[in-house]
Every structure is written in C-alpha cells, then in structure tokens.
Write a structure and sequence with these properties.
Layout: H1 3-14, H2 19-32, H3 35-45, H4 62-73, H5 77-87, H6 90-104, H7 113-125, H8 131-144, H9 148-158, H10 168-179, H11 185-195, H12 198-214, E1 228-231, H13 235-241, E2 246-251, E3 255-261, E4 266-269, H14 281-290, E5 296-304, H15 315-318, H16 329-332, E6 335-345, E7 348-349, H17 355-365, E8 372-374, E9 377-380, H18 383-395, E10 400-404, E11 417-425, H19 427-430, E12 436-445, E13 454-463, E14 468-475, H20 481-491, E15 495-496, E16 503-504, E17 511-513, E18 518-522, E19 525-529, E20 544-548, E21 551-556, H21 568-577
Parallel strand pairs: 1-11, 6-8, 14-16
Antiparallel strand pairs: 2-9, 2-10, 3-4, 3-5, 5-6, 6-7, 10-11, 12-13, 12-17, 12-18, 13-14, 15-17, 18-21, 19-20
Bound molecules: adenosine-5'-triphosphate.
C-alpha cells in the first residue's frame, strides 16, 4: 500500500465532524487494506507504533523536526522557525515547504506504507551519541519522497500531535462495521478491554473474523483494563442494591496494581498501563515467591505501612514510591499489597467466573504473609452489619468499603464501571458528593497575589461515547503556594494555541491545554449550568452540569490518564443521587 492512501484517509477524517461519518470512512478504508497492514494502520491512526502499554514513545523533539524540515526543504532553519511560530503546527509547516519541493523534484519515488513504518521504527529506536543525527536523517529521508499531505502527517506523528479524532471507541465501531455485525460490537470491545491492544484486535478480526475475536482471552504480560465500581450515597442503599446480601471488603487508600506473574519474572502495571515494576521491586519479588501458580494475574492495592507500628499510612506516603530515583525509597517507604482479585491462573482465564470463585482461587493460589496480604472481607446480610463493617474499615485507617456482588453473574468486567462493585467512602458522609477527577483544559491568569501566573483552571469531565472533554467548573481554590508556583511545570507541556479539538467549552480561558493532567476536586453540589458543557441538554434543554464551590484536594491523579477522568455519565448519576430542592440554574463556580 502507498502511504499516500493512509495520509488521504487521515485528511478526510480530520475534515469530518460527525462520528458516524468518521466511522464509515474508516470502515471503508479497513475493508480495502491488506489485513497484515491493519495492525500498524490503527496504531498510526493514534500516532503510535505499538499498543498503549508499550513503554517507548515515538516522540521526536521539536527542534530536531525543525532541522529535518529545513534540511529537506533546503531552507535556513530561521525561516522554518518563523513559519512554525506563526502556525504552531509542524504539520502545516512541512506541508507548505516540503510537499511543494517534491512536486518539483525528479528524483523522488512513491512512499510505501511499509517504508514509513520502518523509518518511524528506526527513529524510535535510534540510540547512542549520534542518535539525533540519525533521527533527522530518517525523517528527511521519508519527507524527501512525501507529498504535501503525507509530510503533514509524518511531522504530526513524530512530534506526538496526531489528532484526527480516531479514538479507540470509534476505531472499534469501524472494525465492527467493516468485518462483523452490529450485535458483535460488545464482543469486539471485550477483546480490546482484555488485551489493551487495538492493533491486535484489528488484525485478529480482519484475518479470523468473530470466531477469532471470541477466542481472545487474558494473557500474562498484556495488561487488562481494570474493572471499576459505581457509588451509592448510603450503606443501606448499597445493601439493598445488592439484593440484601453481598461481600464487603475494606477499601484501601493506595495505588492499584495489576501484577502479571510469569514463570521467569513479574511485571506490575498501573491502572493507566504504566510499568510500575521498578517502583515496587520488593512487592514483585514477594508475589513471585508466595505464588503457588506458575503463571497468574492478580490485582491489589499497594499501601504504605508505618515501619514500627505496622499501621497503614495515607496515600501521599505511597506516592513516594513513584519517584524516578528509587534509591533508598524502597527501604524508607515499606509497603504491602492487599490483593482483591485474580484474573488468570495456570493457563485459565478466570474473568468469566463469579467473584466468590475468583476470591477462592486467589486465597488458594498464594501463601499469604509478609508483604502479601488479602483484603479484609466479610459477607454482609443487613444494613446494620454493613455499618459495623464500615466502622471497622475506618478504624483500620481505610477509606471506606467496596461492596461486591456474590451473584452467579458477578464476573470480572474488564474496563467497565457497574453495580457489581459499589464503593462507599467516609467522604460521602461529610460532602454532598464524591470527589471528582477532572482534566485541566485551560487556565486563567490570576489577579492580586496571583498576578502574572495561573490563578484558576478550567476543568473538564470525559465522555467516552464522544471522546470529548466537557467543562464542569472553573477551579480557583485549594492551591497552596508551592502548587501555584509549580503549575507551569505541570501544565505547560500541554499548551495549545487554540481550543483543542477534543474539548467542548463555552467558557474561554486565557490559555488552553491539551487534556493531560488530572486533578482531584471536591465540591459542595452539582447544579444545572448555563455555561458548562458537561451533559448539555441531558437533564434540561439548554443547560449543562457544573459543580459548585470546587476545591482542589492537593492530589494530582498521575495514576489516571485524562480518559480515566470522572465521566460525564458519572456526573449525571451523582446529580441524580443528590436531593434537588430547586431546579434553579447556577453558573456552577466559585462566586
Ligand atoms: P475509580 O477507580 O472508581 O475510577 P478512583 O481511582 O478515584 O475511582 P475510588 O473511587 O477511590 O478510586 O475507588 C476505586 C479504587 O479503590 C479502585 O480502583 C482500587 O484502586 C481501590 N481499592 C481499594 N480497595 C479495594 C478493594 N478491596 N477492591 C477493589 N478496589 C479497591
């Protein structure tokens, strides 16, 4: 296949607004291409060469790309830089300078897709002291034979600016449209959720159809999207929703880890698919020693423990384990893992088994002790019993409880939030709502003491259906001086010249950010809002949902990707859980 076919498809996708139309453009393209090339095609649609959990990134520094454009176009770097500053987009710069050059050159040949993948792979893998030169050479080589549109996407891919709106959910829709029936869509999504590898799913369905997709199971070494809990406002409602009887576990306040225990070693993944093995080498080793199975996948919460008293310490302590430089930290911050689920054991995918069977497999599979513990669990049969268990969880310094269904259908639902698990936290007793994890999409310059720096942030929830970030509040409270001073370092990598394509907002901040940073926010109330765009028209025509009196808790959720921020749907459900004295509309922000 020629790379120009893919670049033209990117161009059509980019100029298309509606998701249905995008899906059908993609589906047409997927049907036409060689199934063997489909894996790399869908990775590139997302600006990658590998699945999300692959540690290496293609990212090439802007200044190297600038040099490569200047070299290929035969122009001084200063001229290229001028244009770059004006447009803010290396893709546009390359399109206007390089593509035209090719049209005038006799010695160029058509660029194949295969050559582009090889070239990008070489850029990603370039190492050593002349790695910068190697990268520039590889990119110029490709650009030498590229037309205008091809050059635009080459530069966007290598600089991590590839945004044609091809979110994972749209790609899955297109795969269903191209190779299966509408009713197969959930099975295709399940295959993605248990492998986190959209390229693998695309290749499998194109080559083997739905039979091959249904045969995909969890595999040691390939992270599984985590199952998530719903929330309810009281223990009585939790017990009632579970049909009067359920398991309750302590809800530990640490870092969630999915451990893939192989014959030769252990890999630990965070919930955003980062490799955490080097942060918890002691946990990895203990799990291997104490696991009786050859291979297993388990989940647990890693919690910091006071070295003398053995008490559990607050979340902030265990975050020291996420530092880059781990020297001394392993010794100074002792931890334990409290295991709560088992997804795989010795060749068997356990995700389709009910919770009691998975819990039993977990207990049987390990010799519990030392750093490796089970979550405290009790089967509860009344609200009173639930309240007593909740009190004991708080006394043990936990955040609350996790209720888990005991029903035959209580399978492990990878990547989904549902009522098979329900969380109830002590915070719910003090505030009207649970905390929100919101993506930063903009900032406002401060006044008075905060003059000259960011004083407030525009915060958004995520809608997985549309792939859009929709605003819910302007956040200006809860920042201490250190946080205010550190805001540019935290946020400025994501600076965007204009409103990012993935953001739906009416409120206009002084600067925009691509959603990358997630902050935890508490608030007094969710209200109808004329200005915020979350769940616009869902509760009331012309109104969205906003949150009132938002306050930053001090917790940067770097364990969550922006797509794992609180979803718009969750905010709608939380709104439904509040009592509504009036139907008034408020602007949803601090006064
Ligand atoms: P969510 O995970 O629902 O997106 P969150 O990360 O903000 O939200 P919480 O709302 O506090 O976290 O609750 C869910 C998290 O609680 C789980 O993802 C897991 O990390 C943690 N957890 C602690 N104890 C347990 C347990 N016994 N069973 C399952 N999860 C637990």
């Amino acid at each position: 296949m020629l790379y120009s076919e893919l670049a033209d498809t990117f161009d059509r996708l980019e100029s298309t607004g509606g998701r249905l139309e995008m899906t059908s453009i993609m589906a047409d393209f997927f049907r036409r291409v060689d199934p063997k090339e489909l894996r790399n095609i869908v990775y590139l649609m997302q600006g990658k060469l590998h699945p999300d959990f692959y540690p290496q990134e293609l990212g090439m520094a802007d200044k190297l790309v600038l040099k490569a454009i200047a070299f290929t176009a035969g122009m001084p770097e200063s001229k290229v830089e001028e244009l770059w500053v004006k447009t803010g987009d290396p893709g546009e710069v390359a399109e206007s300078l390089i593509g035209k050059k090719k049209q005038m050159t006799l010695f160029s040949e058509d660029l194949t897709f295969d050559r582009v993948v090889k070239g990008l792979t070489a850029i990603e893998g370039a190492e050593g002291k002349d790695s910068q030169d190697k990268k520039i050479k590889q990119l110029s080589n490709l650009m030498h034979d590229a037309g205008p549109v091809e050059a635009r996407y080459l530069c966007r891919i290598v600089t991590g600016r590839m945004r044609v709106g091809a979110g994972a959910m749209t790609i899955l829709d297109a795969l269903a449209e191209a190779f299966a029936a509408k009713e197969d869509r959930p099975a295709i999504e399940r295959a993605f959720n248990v492998t986190c590898d959209i390229g693998l799913v695309a290749e499998t369905i194109a080559e083997g159809g739905m039979d091959a997709i249904r045969a995909i199971g969890v595999k040691v070494g390939s992270p599984v999207k985590v199952m998530l809990a719903e929330r309810l406002p009281s223990i009585a409602e939790v017990v009632a929703k579970m049909g009067g009887r359920c398991a309750m576990e302590y809800k530990y306040d640490g870092i969630r880890v999915q451990a893939h225990i192989g014959k030769d070693g252990v890999k630990l993944f965070s919930r955003r698919l980062e490799d955490l093995t080097s942060n918890f080498p002691d946990i990895a080793q203990s799990l291997r020693t104490r696991c009786g199975c050859g291979e297993a996948i388990i989940e647990g919460e890693c919690v910091a423990i006071h070295p003398e008293t053995g008490f559990m310490l607050p979340f902030q302590t265990v975050t020291h384990r996420r530092r880059k430089d781990m020297k001394d930290v392993v010794r100074d911050v002792p931890v334990r893992i409290f295991m709560f689920d088992m997804l795989f054991a010795d060749g068997k995918d356990l995700t389709g088994l009910p919770y009691p069977e998975r819990r039993k497999a977990l207990e049987d599979g390990f010799s519990i002790g030392g750093m490796v513990q089970m979550t405290t669990m009790k089967v509860v049969e009344s609200p009173e019993e639930g309240e007593r268990f909740f009190s004991s969880a708080i006394a043990a310094r936990c955040e609350g409880i996790m209720a888990k269904s005991l029903a035959p259908e209580s399978v492990y639902r990878a990547g989904s939030r549902g009522f098979l698990w329900i969380k109830y936290k002590k915070d719910y007793q003090q505030a009207l709502t649970d905390s929100f994890d919101l993506a930063v999409v903009g900032a406002f310059y401060g006044m008075g003491k905060r003059a000259g720096r960011y004083g407030a942030l525009l915060m958004a929830a995520f809608d997985p259906e549309t792939g859009m970030f929709e605003t819910v509040c302007k956040l200006g409270t809860g920042f201490d001086d250190a946080f205010l001073a550190g805001m540019p370092d935290l946020l400025d990598d994501g600076l965007s010249e204009s409103k990012p394509a993935s953001v739906e907002a009416e409120m206009v901040p002084d600067v925009w950010f691509e959603p990358t940073v997630v902050l935890e926010v508490v608030a007094a109330e969710i209200t109808l809002s004329p200005i915020h765009t979350a769940a616009r028209d869902v509760i009331k025509e012309g109104a969205g949902l906003g949150i009132r009196f938002p306050r930053f808790t001090g917790r940067v959720r770097d364990d969550k990707s922006p797509e794992q921020a609180t979803s718009v749907d969750e905010i709608v459900r939380m709104y439904g859980m509040q009592s509504h004295d009036s139907d008034g509309i408020s602007d949803g922000d601090d006064p």
